[in-house]
Design a protein that fits this description.
116 residues; single chain
Length: 116
């Protein structure tokens, strides 16, 4: 008896065409082009989920550098002072404080400066 795979194949194709909806030109409605583009898109998505973490860390460091310079410290001096003062806040939280709660950040910066 021969095995028919129509239902499975149709489900698989429908899923892929749903993912490729909105792609340019024939990449959204021709099977081979859609398949290649979806595979590539998923690879980019996987890679960029990892890269996003580094981009946010860079953003926090830029913000901390700007905020620390308002209080007479460079970023590297600020971080070294934090380590010496045993202040264990991460860069994300420090950047949030620098944006939203300047008086608290100023106190942290003064403690870091005093520890140097």
């Amino acid at each position: 008896m021969r095995v028919k795979s129509g239902v499975y194949t149709r489900q698989r194709k429908k899923k892929l065409f749903r993912i490729s909806k909105g792609y340019y030109s024939n990449r959204n409605n021709r099977w081979r082009q859609a398949l290649q583009q979806v595979e590539r898109s998923l690879q980019y998505a996987y890679r960029d989920r990892k890269d996003r973490k580094g981009e946010f860390r860079s953003l926090w460091i830029i913000r901390l550098n700007a905020a620390a310079r308002m209080f007479g410290l460079s970023y590297s001096q600020f971080v070294r002072g934090l380590k010496k003062a045993n202040i264990g806040l991460n860069r994300k939280m420090l950047a949030e404080l620098a944006l939203k709660d300047i008086p608290v950040f100023e106190q942290i910066a003064q403690k870091a400066k005093a520890a140097l």
